[in-house]
C-alpha cells in the first residue's frame, strides 16, 4: 500500500519514471532514478558519489603506504640517489648554502674524512658533490648555521678519530674556507649543534663525545673565535646526539641529549646565565618519541621505529619547492646520500618518519 501511494505521489508531481519510489515488504526504500534525489535540500546521489570517490582515494593511498597484511611496515617512496661517493655516510642535512633559494644537501662521511655538499639545481636534481674538507677524520656530524654573522650559512663538523670540532666559513657563493678548529679535545666526538646559548646574539657550538665532559659548549665571541670547552654533562657516557631547544618555555635554549650506549634521553635546563642545571632524564632506553607538554614535562614513549639498521642520519626539507617537506637519509653501509619525495598525500612523511 505504501509503495502504491508513493508511486501515485510521484505521478502527481510530474515524475513519469515508473516506479520512482517503492517500499518493500521488509521496509526497504527503493529509489529508481538516473537524476537527482534531494532530501531536505541535500542531493543524496551527489553526496554518495563524493563519499565513494573519497573512499577510493584513501584506499589507493593506503595501498601505497601499507602492504596488504595488517601487521606489515610502512612502504617508503622511491629513493632518489644524490651521490654514492659518501664513504661511510654518517650525517646529512638540507640548507641553502649558495643563496639561490633552493635547499642544498650537506653531508658528513667517516670513511673518507669528508664534509661535502651537493648543489640543488632547482628541479629536484643535484650537481656532483663538492668537497668542503677531507680533514675531518672519522667525520660523524655536520651542522649549518651563520657562525660569523656575515649572513652566509657556514658549516660546523664533529669528527671522532681526530677528536675535532671545527667550522668552515662560507664565502657566500658556495665556496668555503679551510678547516677552522674549535677544539681537538672532544674525545671520540659524535655530534655537533649550534645555538645562541648565552643570549649574546651569536651562535655558540655544542658537542657530544664519549669522554668527560660528554656534552660541552664553546662560546662564540661574535667573529667565529671560540673559547675553551664548558662542560654541561660531566659524565663519560657515550652521547650520540645533542640538540638545543627551549624545553621548559622560559625562552632559553636547553640542551637535549641521546646516549648511544643506553638509549637514554635526557635534558639540561639553561639557567639563562650561561650555566646549565642538573640532568633531567626523559627515558632510559628505546626508539621512542616523546611529546613535549611545554613546561619541561613529557608524554610517555611513543614508538617511532624498531627497524633501524645502518641509517646514520636523517633530515627534512622541501627539496623540490613543491610545498611538501621531503626526507633525506645518510646510510653507512652503502655510502649513500638519498632523498625521498613527499607528494603530499596524507602527509605521510610527517606522520611516519
TrEMBL record:
InterPro entries: FG-GAP, Integrin_alpha_N
UniProt KW keywords: Signal
Top-level taxon: Eukaryota
Entry-linked Pfam families: FG-GAP_3
UniProt name for this protein: VCBS repeat-containing protein
Gene source species: Monosiga brevicollis (Choanoflagellate)
Amino acid at each position: 500500500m505504501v509503495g502504491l501511494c508513493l508511486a501515485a505521489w510521484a505521478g502527481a508531481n510530474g515524475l513519469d519514471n515508473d516506479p520512482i519510489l517503492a517500499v518493500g515488504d521488509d521496509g526497504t526504500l527503493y529509489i529508481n532514478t538516473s537524476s537527482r534525489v534531494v532530501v531536505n535540500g541535500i542531493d543524496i546521489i551527489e553526496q554518495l558519489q563524493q563519499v565513494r570517490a573519497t573512499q577510493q582515494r584513501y584506499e589507493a593511498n593506503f595501498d601505497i603506504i601499507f602492504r596488504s597484511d595488517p601487521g606489515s611496515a610502512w612502504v617508503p617512496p622511491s629513493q632518489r640517489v644524490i651521490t654514492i661517493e659518501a664513504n661511510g655516510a654518517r650525517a646529512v642535512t638540507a640548507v641553502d648554502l649558495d643563496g639561490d633559494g633552493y635547499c642544498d644537501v650537506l653531508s658528513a662521511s667517516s670513511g673518507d674524512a669528508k664534509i661535502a655538499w651537493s648543489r640543488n639545481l632547482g628541479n629536484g636534481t643535484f650537481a656532483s658533490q663538492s668537497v668542503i674538507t677531507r680533514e675531518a677524520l672519522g667525520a660523524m656530524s655536520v651542522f649549518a648555521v651563520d657562525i660569523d654573522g656575515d649572513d652566509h650559512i657556514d658549516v660546523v663538523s664533529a669528527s671522532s678519530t681526530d677528536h675535532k670540532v671545527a667550522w668552515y666559513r662560507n664565502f657566500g657563493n658556495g665556496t668555503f674556507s679551510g678547516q677552522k678548529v674549535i677544539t681537538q679535545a672532544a674525545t671520540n666526538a659524535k655530534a655537533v649543534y649550534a645555538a645562541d646559548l648565552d643570549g649574546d646574539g651569536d651562535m655558540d657550538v655544542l658537542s657530544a663525545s664519549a669522554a668527560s665532559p660528554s656534552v660541552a659548549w664553546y662560546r662564540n665571541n661574535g667573529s667565529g673565535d671560540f673559547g675553551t670547552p664548558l662542560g654541561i654533562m660531566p659524565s663519560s657516557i657515550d652521547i650520540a646526539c645533542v640538540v638545543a631547544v627551549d624545553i621548559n618555555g622560559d625562552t632559553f635554549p636547553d640542551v637535549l641529549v641521546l646516549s648511544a650506549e643506553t638509549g637514554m634521553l635526557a635534558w639540561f635546563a639553561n639557567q639563562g646565565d650561561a650555566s646549565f642545571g642538573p640532568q633531567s632524564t626523559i627515558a632510559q632506553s628505546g626508539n621512542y618519541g616523546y611529546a613535549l607538554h611545554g613546561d619541561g614535562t613529557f608524554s610517555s614513549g611513543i614508538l617511532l621505529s624498531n627497524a633501524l639498521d645502518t641509517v646514520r642520519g636523517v633530515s627534512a626539507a622541501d627539496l623540490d619547492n613543491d610545498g611538501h617537506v621531503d626526507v633525506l637519509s645518510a646510510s653507512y653501509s652503502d655510502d649513500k646520500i638519498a632523498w625521498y619525495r613527499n607528494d603530499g598525500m596524507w602527509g605521510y612523511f610527517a606522520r611516519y618518519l
